[in-house]
Amino acid sequence: FELSGASREIIAIEKGIQLVEDNNIEMIIGAGGASIMDCAKLIAFGSYQKEDLWDYIKGRKNPYGLEKLPLILIPTYPSSGSEYGLGAVASDKRRQDFGTAYGIAGDVALLVPKYSLSLDKEMTAYTGLVTFVQLSASTIGDHNPISYDMGISVIKNVLKATKRLKENPNDEEARGVILYGASISTSGRLGLGKEENYAYDIYELEFIPEVLFEATYRKSLTTLFPRFLKVMAKYYQEDIVRYFKDIFGYEEIEIASKEMIKLFEDLGVDMYFKGQITRDKIENIDFETILSIEEVTSIIEDCLVK
User: How far is CA 129 from CA 134, 136, 292, in A?
Assistant: First the structure.
C-alpha cells in the first residue's frame, strides 16, 4: 500500500499492520524517504508486537533480536540513512509525543542513485544538507582520530556533491556520494571516540518545530542546526570550534554559524520558520536535552522570520 511522508504517524503504522494481518503479507518493502522506511520497519516489527508497539517506540521495551517480517529498504530520498540504521521514529500528534524504537534493521538495502533523479531542486538540496547535519552530529565530539577524520572527509564530500547537484541535478555520481554518506551516518562507524552524546540533542530539538509549525523533519533539522551549534558551543567550545575549522576554516563560532546559514540558503533551502512561540508552548513538548529551556527557546526564536 502507498504512504505519504506523514507515515511516521502511529495511525498510519497501525493501519499498515492491520493490512498485513488481513492480507497474510509475508514481506515488507519500504521504498521512499526516512518516514517511509521507518514506517516499513515498524510495520514489519509491529506485526509481531502489535499490542506493545508504542512501548518499544518510547524505549520502555527493547526490540533487539525480536521477530519481524522480512524487510527490504530502498531509499528514493537519500538523507536519513534509515536503510542502514537501527532506529525507527514514530510520532503521535494527537498527544504531541514521539519516540524511536532502536534495534530494527532491514534485511536488505538497495542503494540506487538514479532512484532519486525525480526530486526537484529544493528536495535534492535537502538530501545533501540533512545528510550533512546527520554526519556532523555523529562526528562532533569524536576523539578517535580515525573515525573523526573519516567523518570530516565524508562531510566534505557530501557538501561538494550537494554543490555539484545544484549545477547539474542529473549527476548520478554526486547523488551516489550523498546516498553513501547518508548510510554511513547511521552505520555506527563514526563517533567511535565520543565521550558525550550532546551533539545528538539536535534530534530531540528538531521535533519542536514539527509540533509548533508543522515543519518537516528535513526543514526542522537543517534550520535548527547552525543555531544549535552556536548555543551548544557555550559548553563544548573546543569540539565545535574544531569542527567548524576543519569543515569551513572558521574558528569564530558566531561567524561560522552565520556562514552555515548562508551556505544552506545558497544551496536552495529556507532557513526560517513563520510563526510565534512562547516558552510555555515549548515546555509542553516532550523532549530531552542538556540545554536549558531558556536556551532552547532562544534557538527557536533565532529561527523565526523577523
Answer: 9, 10, 27
Establish how many alpha carbons lie within 13 A of residue 239's alpha carbon, considering only the half-sphere containing its beta carbon: 27
Instruction: Tell me the HSE value of 97 on the side-chain side, using a 13 A CA sphere.
Output: 10
213: its cell numbers? 509549525
Give me the residues of the chain with pLDDT under 50, please. Answer: none
Question: Following DSSP, what letter does each residue of 102-151 receive, concatenated?
Answer: ES---SEE---GGGGTT--HHHHHHHHHHHHHHHHHHHTTB--HHHHHHH
Residue type at 216 in one-letter notation = T
Q: Could you tell me which of 261, 189, 216, 243 has the C-alpha nearest to residue 89?
A: 216
Tens of pLDDT, residue by residue over 259-300, are 999 999 999 999 999 999 999 999 999 899 999 999 999 999
CA–CA gap between residue 13 and residue 87 (Å, rounded) = 15
Helix (H) or strand (E) holding 156: helix 145-167
pTM beyond 0.70: the answer is: yes
Question: How much is the pLDDT for 116?
Answer: 93
The grid coordinates listed for 131 are: 545528510
- Dig out the grid coordinates for 266 from the structure: 545558497
Closest by CA position to 130, among listed 168, 169, 78? 78
